[in-house]
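Bench notes, bay 3.
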Amino acid sequence: HGDDLSGPEQRALLDEARRRCAQRSLRATLHEGDAQRLPFDDAAFDATRADRVLIFLHEPGAALREMARVTRPGGRIVVTEADLGSAVVDAPDPELTRALLATAAEALPSGWMGRRLHGLFVDAGLVDVELRMFGVPSTSCSEWVLRMGVAPAGVAKPNTGHHHLLVDTGPPAFGEPIPAEKAPGSHVHAG
């Protein structure tokens, strides 16, 4: 499957990101492109990051392999991703809540991405992979849908920055170099 996530909504998000970067005087160049075919040379970056991207892809492993390809050996890869099958929602009707969460997970190409990340990282040749699970309890299904940004078409999808899963490697603190001898490929690290 190919995933075409381009369109007016995505361009609007990119325009908003550019506006925010300019507003904060950040020196960042933003590109619209295909996560499964990044337009960058091998080992072009010290670090790469994806936030709630893989859950929307039919072939998330291809995007992760691309991140590994463009990240220098010993670099860092950070992925924050949801696992809709492990959502914590305290709603009054448990049966309905389970049904709604299952429907949301099945509606996305990779709705159970969180639990697949470790295997995908290993398959991509990454080392020192560590998963950290974060439960983000919601008090209703509607609040959870808004938080996760997986509302049905036509419904506003604000990004509140909450994630259920963080992948990272341990020992070095953010900003410390990862010894090259530990990295035949790239590392995953959150700072």
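Next record in the batch:
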Amino acid sequence: RRRFMSWLKRQEIHQQNSLRPKEAKRAGQKVYSRNIVQADLVEAKTKDLQTLGRKLDTYFLTVASLLTGFMHAVEVKTKKSGPVAKVMAEAFNKLEQKLGKPIKTLQTDAGGEFLGAPVQKLLKKRGIKHQVVRLGAKIEQANGLWQRKFYVELHKHGGGKIQRYIDAASQIVNETKSRVLGVSPLEALEL
């Protein structure tokens, strides 16, 4: 029983410490920063968008702050690097406006749409460091919730402009409280 209680106490201390911002090995450098964002492309199949009269698959570029979880989604017609770069610039402007700071680091998967010349040129022009990560947990979690909310809104209201459903789903995700932090991404921006 004593060993079990000792183990339980260590687990509690570990959980409490894992919630605190950590310092990196280099002095003065923080692990968590508002300036680090993750991006991903989400595909919506034609059959899901038939109520909007879509005949081709559509993609959504989602960008989320690693620290606050605040996300923004934008429609992209194709998965090629050129159109993705144009839409990415728009998403970065919106995210920088909300975060109040310029983006310094972008984390993405190794998809061709992010490694192509137009996107790399955009990142270089804006002074953003690009990191390729195997799994972006924050963006994957945000994408799952965003997709569920997008399809609920789409099936609830039917036709109209797709941007209306994109914005509604993004707003719901940004207003949803985190179980870990106890605040929503919008509330985290104000901290």
